């Protein structure tokens, strides 16, 4: 990008990278803010707000922009449980719509690619620094302008937390454009690894493949949980429609409500993963939704809540098989990767093959299970939160219990998948030979 280009062919002075980063970031911030304004304007056009003043709507849009970036909002509420007349209180809104968080992430991904194309390897930090300073200032200004007596916003949170999804998107986008981390940061990892010992390279390959297998297991578990969520919504579709009809929000109001629910769709998939793991999730303080039964109190009239399985479930325990199946897939994948150097090392040290095969397979199951459990706990921490009102201050799975359940189930599946892998490979080879013979 240049500051000036005229008809003489003189392209002028190159734009400083920090300035280009700031302009790219300002563009991304404005676009994401406009997208947050659109549904609010649509509801306002149908007289859906009691306070239709322009400044109130602008503050609401800014608060929504901060929420999708993960900034907690302190809500001033009236607690009816404190007395008949109610007493003032406050609640923290931390339930982030992860689906809408993808908007600033993707905009940052685009900006990161553009900045990587405009920078040399040792200059990219200038563009990134300029962009992050501008985005941090935008967040701080939004928090300062949009705070009210009813919604308290910590300025430091508004300044720093939006940088997390934005900076992550920029780094991933820049890495995608550069093609490798060595081109991005100027460090050749391959050359560094080549200078290490052979044992270190084998250990690194083993641990790296185990980490990838853990990611494969978690991805497969999420996919299976998403399919189960879709089936559950299909089965309870009549109840979901009944809630829409009871709300009678109109076409625009119904569309805005649907967009909000779609924004929380990734959260719901993580909730479904917690359900199939057996750990379950909470829909309010003291509630529990799991495959062995559901016990919740009164819930808000949100259509998707009508699809929550209720009462005792005679065959709910069957859902626990899904993470195990994902672990079987991960164990087979690891076998095909061919990086079980721990098993090779044991075979060299100990002659008893039955012992070395058992120990190495169990160690692999434990290692992959731990990786999947840690990733699942991280997802649970991101997806859970508080709605800031009444009992709904605890929504979502418990990260510790979800991580433990996923680790155990995936570990069992990995052991089965790795042990059965040779038979699966042999069967696949036989099928290929039979196909060629035809």
Characterization of this structure:
The chain is mainly alpha-helical and 438 residues long. The protein has two domains: 173 residues, no CATH class; 242 residues, no CATH class. The protein is 67% helix and 6% strand. It contains 16 helices and seven strands. The strands form three sheets. A three-stranded antiparallel beta sheet has the order 2-1-3. The longest helix has 39 residues. It is flat and about 80 Å long. The termini are far apart. The N terminus is likely disordered.
Measure the end-to-end span. Answer: 60 Å
The total tally of domains equals 2
The class by helix and strand makeup works out as: mainly alpha
Low-confidence segments, ≥5 residues, pLDDT <50? 1-7, 79-87
Give the percentage of residues in beta strands.
5-15%
Whole-angstrom Rg: 26 Å
Helix-strand pattern: HHEEHHEHHHHHHHHEEEHHHEH
Organism: Pseudarthrobacter sulfonivorans
InterPro entries: DUF6350 (IPR045931)
Protein name: Integral membrane protein
Transmembrane segments: 25-45, 57-78, 90-112, 124-145, 151-174, 241-260, 267-286, 315-335, 355-382, 402-420
Comma- or semicolon-separated keywords:
mainly alpha; 438 residues; Integral membrane protein; transmembrane; disordered N terminus; membrane; two-stranded antiparallel sheet; three-stranded antiparallel sheet; 67% helix; DUF6350; 6% strand
């Amino acid at each position: 990008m240049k500051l000036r280009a005229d008809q003489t062919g003189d392209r002028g002075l190159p734009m400083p990278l920090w300035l280009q980063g700031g302009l790219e970031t300002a563009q991304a911030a404005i676009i994401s803010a406009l997208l947050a304004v659109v549904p609010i304007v649509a509801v306002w056009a149908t007289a859906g707000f009691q306070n239709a003043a322009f400044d109130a709507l602008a503050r609401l849009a800014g608060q929504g922009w901060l929420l999708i970036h993960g900034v907690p909002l302190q809500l001033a509420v009236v607690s009816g449980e404190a007395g008949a007349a109610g007493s003032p209180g406050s609640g923290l809104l931390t339930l982030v719509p992860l689906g809408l968080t993808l908007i600033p992430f993707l905009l940052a991904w685009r900006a990161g690619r553009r900045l990587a194309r405009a920078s040399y390897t040792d200059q990219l930090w200038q563009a990134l620094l300029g962009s992050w300073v501008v985005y941090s200032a935008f967040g701080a200004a939004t928090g300062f302008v949009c705070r009210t007596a009813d919604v308290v916003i910590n300025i430091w949170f508004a300044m720093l937390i939006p940088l997390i999804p934005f900076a992550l998107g920029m780094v991933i986008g820049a890495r995608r454009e550069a093609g490798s981390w060595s081109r991005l940061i100027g460090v050749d990892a391959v050359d560094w690894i080549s200078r290490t010992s052979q044992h270190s390279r084998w250990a690194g390959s083993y641990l790296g493949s185990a980490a990838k297998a853990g990611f494969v297991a978690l991805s497969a578990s999420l996919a299976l949980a998403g399919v189960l969520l879709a089936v559950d919504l299909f089965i309870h579709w009549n109840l979901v429609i009944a809630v829409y009809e009871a709300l009678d929000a109109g076409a625009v109001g119904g569309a805005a409500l649907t967009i909000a629910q779609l924004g929380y769709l990734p959260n719901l998939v993580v909730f479904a993963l917690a359900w199939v793991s057996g750990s379950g999730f909470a829909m309010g303080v003291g509630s529990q939704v799991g495959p062995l039964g559901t016990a919740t109190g009164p819930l808000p009239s949100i259509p998707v809540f009508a699809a929550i399985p209720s009462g005792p479930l005679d065959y709910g325990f069957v859902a626990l098989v899904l993470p195990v199946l994902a672990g079987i897939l991960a164990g087979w994948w690891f076998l095909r990767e061919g990086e079980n150097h721990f098993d090779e090392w044991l075979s060299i040290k100990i002659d008893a093959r039955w012992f070395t095969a058992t120990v190495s397979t169990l160690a692999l199951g434990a290692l992959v299970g731990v990786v999947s459990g840690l990733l699942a706990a991280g997802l649970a921490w991101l997806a859970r939160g508080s709605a800031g009102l009444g009992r709904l201050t605890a929504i979502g799975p418990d990260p510790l219990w979800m991580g433990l359940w996923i680790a155990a189930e995936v570990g069992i599946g990995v052991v089965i998948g790795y042990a059965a892998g040779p038979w699966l490979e042999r069967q696949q080879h036989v099928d290929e030979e039979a196909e060629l013979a035809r």
